[in-house]
Design a protein that fits this description.
CATH architecture: 2-Layer Sandwich
Structural class: alpha+beta
Order of helices and strands: EHEEEEHE
CATH class: Alpha Beta
Largest sheet: 6 strands, antiparallel
């Protein structure tokens, strides 16, 4: 049973510096998250639950694909759980998610 109720939000990105959208289809995420124990509970939401942790990965549509955000609730250190998810998605975890996109003029 979870005793610590802090929820952390992370961006999962193909760029290690800022949230960048994934060009892959939803099925690509499902195939990579299933071996970690994630269940697809809606079109754009994947959930993992055990006695120690609850995680939810949500995809948000973008013009080029999907932004991915991971929510983690666990009594232990959250970051390593996010790193496991990022690793199977061949991506990076970003602690302070933002959807700001930088143009060439910036």
């Amino acid at each position: 049973m979870l005793t610590h109720r802090t929820v952390r939000k992370f961006a999962i990105s193909i760029d290690p510096e800022e949230p960048i959208d994934f060009p892959q289809p939803v099925e690509w995420f499902a195939a990579r998250l299933a071996p970690l124990g994630f269940e697809q509970v809606s079109t754009y939401t994947f959930r993992y639950t055990d006695s120690e942790c609850v995680m939810k990965l949500e995809l948000s549509e973008s013009s080029d694909g999907y932004f991915a955000h991971l929510y983690v609730q666990a009594p232990d250190e959250h970051r390593y759980r996010g790193l496991e998810v990022a690793q199977v998605l061949e991506a990076h975890i970003i602690d302070a998610p933002s959807t700001k996109r930088h143009g060439l003029e910036e």
